[in-house]
Write a structure and sequence with these properties.
Length: 562
């Protein structure tokens, strides 16, 4: 009997039990853990013997894979939250990947926070005032304590800010967030609960960059190894992290805000989407956000023990180009790549319609958004014309140029890369794919060791300071998020003016022109806004999807019946 077992073997290879052996008769099946791209291929296996024996063997191996290594009872008070990769750095001054920022938001607080309408509310600072354009004074809450019991003081705030903005300060860290605080002249602790910011110039984004999610206050004395055991003031506190396995948090009983109902959260790293779907289906996991294949949602939603929450999202998938690369320095090649990508097809198939094409980094309902920019709709004829204009003629095999795209081991990213590889081949671009574990991939992106890559902006693109963080000359990585090393003096001037101007109409005009410049020069290609989809056990209540895909619902989530 022949059984088409591509899906089955793909699951076994990614499963934690993948190195166990299961014997049946004279036939031995060994699964070796393998997360390489070839697991996406259609595989077939032959199981010898009759139909009954084959089905028995198949069922036996499946049961062993699903349950054999799950003998330990899970703590019923612990929420098992599935994530695709480990956070790269849980120091809130440094981590900028999605997992780090989402988990840090549970561990740390900023001086202020933003509500659902992006209005500022008190956080660690109970109040603040601005006596003049270059001075901002924050008054800290009384009695706030860090997770280790230390009392929060103004000295902790000064240490946190100085360690990010001043490379010569005690405890200085290397961070892509440094340029966000370049407008600060100095920070002083006027007394135990009063912090004064002295500015070089007006900065319309300072409050944003001091808000929960954008940063977090750490204890004075925290150094570069702080990520190994982070200590904050947030609603949850850190217990442990095993790289590529899990992160364990428990509720903070010292929290200055409401203490969570959930006792513990285990963020389990499950890169394989099929395994993650099965874990949720059989109840060994409780929740996942934007990490499951779209074709699994209908089956999961039909399960009586599973619920699915959706909302229109602000997370934006983009394709990044390295402008220091000799080939990609030519804007015509970047534009040709954009024209060769059939976004509508990818949204209909890979995204199952749960995304919308993007023309800007900003959400479409943002006051600074502009759709009056150059568009790159799917047009392979135009793509080939642009390549020819760039001097890239096809060889005897129809290939015009060779490029390399780096991806993480996340299956969704690898699937997207495979589709891009096929689409670019249609216009003569041979795209080589190289997949790395997440930490290595992200490190390569930060240091510019790539030609092409794809990531998502999460949360940070909800305000227009994202343009400066991602594309200003002063924000070249690692001091900022300009990983493409794009530089345009006119763009820099517009962004500086918009950051300092008090004239709302002028700021809007600056941002409209900035978006037009970025669409023309194309240092990165905005692909789509991804809907936020939360899949969770029905035992877990008070769950709400947020546009940015944050994990903040854990602060109010409860177990049904407990």
């Amino acid at each position: 009997m022949r059984i088409d077992a591509g899906l089955f073997l793909r699951f076994l290879r990614s499963h934690p039990c993948s190195k166990r052996r299961c014997k049946g008769g004279a036939r031995e099946i060994q699964s070796v853990q393998c997360r390489s791209f070839d697991s996406l291929r259609s595989l077939r296996m032959t199981i010898g013997g009759g139909t009954a024996l084959s089905l028995l063997l198949f069922g036996f191996v499946t049961l062993l894979a699903l349950a054999g290594c799950r003998s330990a009872q899970r703590d019923p008070r612990t929420v098992v939250f599935l994530i695709e990769s480990s956070p790269t750095n849980l120091d809130p001054r440094i981590g900028t990947d999605a997992q780090s920022e989402h988990i840090d938001e549970l561990l740390f607080d900023g001086l202020v926070m933003r509500d659902s309408n992006f209005q500022f509310k008190p956080a660690l600072a109970e109040s603040w005032e601005q006596p003049d354009a270059l001075t901002l004074v924050f008054h800290l809450r009384n009695g706030v304590r860090f997770h280790d019991g230390r009392l929060l003081t103004a000295r902790d705030v000064v240490w946190t800010i100085d360690s990010m903005r001043n490379a010569k300060s005690a405890g200085a860290v290397i961070t892509a967030k440094a340029n966000s605080y370049a407008s600060i002249q100095s920070v002083e602790a006027r007394d135990e609960r009063t912090v004064v910011f002295h500015m070089k110039h007006a900065d319309n984004f300072l409050l944003i960059n001091l808000s929960t999610g954008a940063m977090g206050i750490v204890p004075a004395g925290s150094g570069r190894e702080f990520w190994q055991h982070p200590v904050g003031t947030g609603p949850f506190r850190f217990l442990s992290q095993q790289i590529d396995q899990d992160v364990l948090l428990e509720r903070n009983l010292l929290s200055w805000s409401a203490v969570p109902h959930i006792a513990r959260v285990r963020f389990a790293v499950v890169p394989d989407a099929i395994t993650a779907s099965l874990e949720l289906e059989k109840g060994s996991a409780d929740v996942a956000v934007n990490s499951l294949p779209m074709d699994a949602l209908a089956a999961l939603e039909a399960r009586p023990n599973v619920a699915v929450e959706r909302t229109v999202g602000t997370q934006i998938q983009y394709l990044g180009f390295n402008l220091r690369d000799p080939l990609l320095q030519d804007v015509r090649i970047r534009q040709a790549i954009a024209c060769a990508i059939d976004r509508d097809l990818i949204i209909r198939t890979l995204q199952r319609g749960h995304a919308q094409p993007a023309l800007s980094l900003l959400p479409v309902n943002h006051w600074a958004y502009s759709g009056a920019v150059e568009r790159y709709d799917y047009n392979p004829v135009r793509a080939e014309q642009l390549l020819s204009e760039a001097g890239r003629k096809p060889d005897q095999n129809g290939v015009r140029l060779h490029l390399t795209m780096k991806t993480s081991s996340d299956e969704g990213t690898r699937l997207l890369a495979a589709v891009l590889q096929q689409q670019l081949a249609q216009v003569g671009i041979a795209l080589e794919l190289r997949s790395y574990e997440s930490a290595t991939f992200y490190a390569d992106v930060r240091r510019g060791a790539f030609q092409l890559y794809s990531l998502r902006w999460i949360g940070g693109n909800e305000q227009p300071d994202i343009f400066g963080y991602a594309f200003a000359t002063a924000s070249f990585s690692p001091a900022g998020g300009n990983r493409s090393h794009y530089s345009n003096p006119r763009l820099d001037a517009l962004l500086d003016d918009a950051a300092q101007s008090a004239d709302a109409a002028k700021r809007h005009g600056d941002y409209v022109e900035a978006q037009q410049i970025l669409a023309r020069d194309l240092p990165a290609f905005n692909l789509w806004y991804r809907d936020t989809i939360v899949v969770h056990s029905r035992r877990l209540t008070h769950i709400a999807a947020t546009p940015s895909g944050s994990f903040s619902f854990l602060e109010t989530a409860e177990w049904a019946g407990l």
